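Extended Data, panel c. Modelled sequence:
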Amino acid sequence: MVAPRVAVVTGANKGIGYHIAQSLVHSGLFGVVVLGCRDPTRGQQAAAAIGGCAEYMALEVGNAASADAFAEALVARHGRCDVLVNNAGIAFKDADPTPFAEQTKPTLDVNYRGTVALTKRLLPLLQAGDDPRIVNVASMAGKLKQLQPPLQARFSAASLTLRELDGLVDQFEADVQAGTHQARGWGRSNYGLSKLALIAATQVLG
């Protein structure tokens, strides 16, 4: 007997993530659709509202200990992961008084670093299946043209590796802290850079 397929959707307690999880449940293609959410109350309420095979599990993307605990719990409960939808993300509102430089690390830690780390953590489970899928929810804000041409070439290089991409993201953060990011060819959006990096990671992993 073939075990029922398992899908994971991060940041699924509201918005796009909620509706993706709802659609997967209603598709009838999965035995379990796991809503990985940071807030237990909202996560449980979302799973209950969707109903069917929806199930809440605690997950804070960007927190290594939480990602490890999530992966271990997923193995213990279901023993597999066939589809991973990386939807969780953060974006500071325009009216937020937090200085730009202080928004950089939190944004990159969730939208890029934490998302890639979770993906790598779940890859063994995904690769063990016969039809694994990874979907990364990006944004129009992640356009390549936010960068000057030399950086565009580095982000779009066919030979780009995750290690090199990590280095580029780290350099952006360092340049922001030094106040030199625009002079060095970077854009003016932490969120945009995080989503551009995620798009590049998707291409590398593909």
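The mean pLDDT is 96. This feature is highlighted in the accompanying rendering.
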